[in-house]
Amino acid sequence: MPTKQSIWRNTAFQRMVGADALSQFGTQVTLVALPLTALLTLEASPFQLGLLTAAEMAAFLLIGLPAGVWADRLRRRPILVAADAMRAVALLSIPLAAFAGVLSLAQLYVVALIVGVGTVFFDVAHMSFVPSIVDRDDLPRGIGTMETLRSGASLVGPGLGGWLVQVLTAPFALLADAITYACSATVLATIRTEERPVPQERRSLKAEVAEGLRYVLGHRVLRRIAMVGSLNMLANGLWAVVQPLLLVRELDLGAGAYGLIVSATGLGGVVGGVLAPKIVDRYGNGGAMYGGAVLAGLFMLVVGFTGEGWQVIFYPVGMALTVASSVVLNVGQGSYRQAVTPDHLRGRMNASMRFLMWSAMPVGGILGGLLAEQLSVWQLLWVSCLATVVGHLPFIVSPWIRRLRVEAA
């Protein structure tokens, strides 16, 4: 366990933050460059764009639960390093294939799946590793810092990604993400901290997976968090399809303008990440979850009024406010989950959460692709907005959530 100290005097935490910043920055470049590679370079249809989203998220269905068992059995830092290295190599293959003139949608699907596998292992081990380097009463601050960095990356990364797409073309812009993942892996490899010993007695993979699921589904609060996460990930799958179709094809924005609009939404995340620890301290984890859900649902309705000309402003403004509210919600629920879960179960708890939540996103991506073939982009925009509102209802209709608070250890 970490010794009691200021979170910013914690060398391991500083390096973790640095690695996370690199990784998240590159990920946000890919958020723009990967779908634009499919849309502009390979002229993908709306349904093929939905399949690309599904391919990246399919890893949560395929290995989401076993990844949690391995994160509990093994030391977590090496998992983080290996996951970043895997993602770097996979993304590097896209500019190389484009240079050779052999890039195809099939390769994009494979790379998206490999990147998804790396993301599953990284995210599960990452959340479970944070309590190894941060004191329990600093968890809201530590996770809030991570969320702020994630949002800061989403503020700068997409804009840079759009610019790189214009200058280098979409496939070669992905080189930036490959480099950031490689740098992140290098920084993570330098972290020295005492992790808990690897358990000597191991049960079957199936038994350990089942224990993690039972823990989450049997816990009243964790079960409700998983429900909200699943519904919102389904909506996010829709957004992964509608966003490039709306901004690039329907509103005819260039790659640079597209990146800037996506970046603008990250400003809300930065504000939310800064405010979230203070909100958790004052109103408790439950207050942050409940208030974040109510505001996210309301602000998402603003996005629905996006239109041509000056009405395009409703998209970044509504998204920024929604993201700010969501970050407050995520810091509240994320610090609650880590604090109430025993260390030996943390990997499986986080994996079960990721499985239950993120498995809905490929379904949303495919559904979004199918709906885009049948509905206008404007109709799909409102379907996506309403799906996000519905995703927050399990918290909104549960006022008892507001009373939840994790006391410092």
- Supply the CATH architecture: Up-down Bundle
If you consult CATH, what is the topology? Growth Hormone, Chain: A
Q: Number of helical segments?
A: 13
Number of strands: 0
Which percent band covers the strand fraction?
Answer: under 5%
CATH superfamily: MFS general substrate transporter like domains
Task: Assign an overall shape.
Answer: globular
Low-confidence stretches: none
Major beta-sheet overview: none
* Quaternary structure state of the chains depicted: single chain
What does this 3D model show about the protein?
- The protein is an all-alpha fold.
- Helix content is 82%, strand content 0%.
- The protein has a single domain, classed as Growth Hormone, Chain: A (Up-down Bundle), CATH 1.20.1250.
- It has 13 helices and no strands.
- Helix 2 packs parallel to helix 4 and helix 3 packs antiparallel against helix 4.
- The mean pLDDT is 86.
Brief write-up:
With 409 residues, the protein is an all-alpha fold.
List the helices and strands and how they pair.
Layout: H1 11-41, H2 46-73, H3 76-100, H4 105-133, H5 139-168, H6 170-188, H7 205-218, H8 220-250, H9 255-303, H10 314-340, H11 343-358, H12 360-374, H13 377-396
Helix pairs in contact: 1-4, 1-5, 1-6, 2-4, 2-7, 2-8, 2-11, 2-12, 3-4, 3-6, 4-11, 5-6, 5-9, 5-10, 7-11, 8-11, 8-12, 8-13, 9-10, 9-13
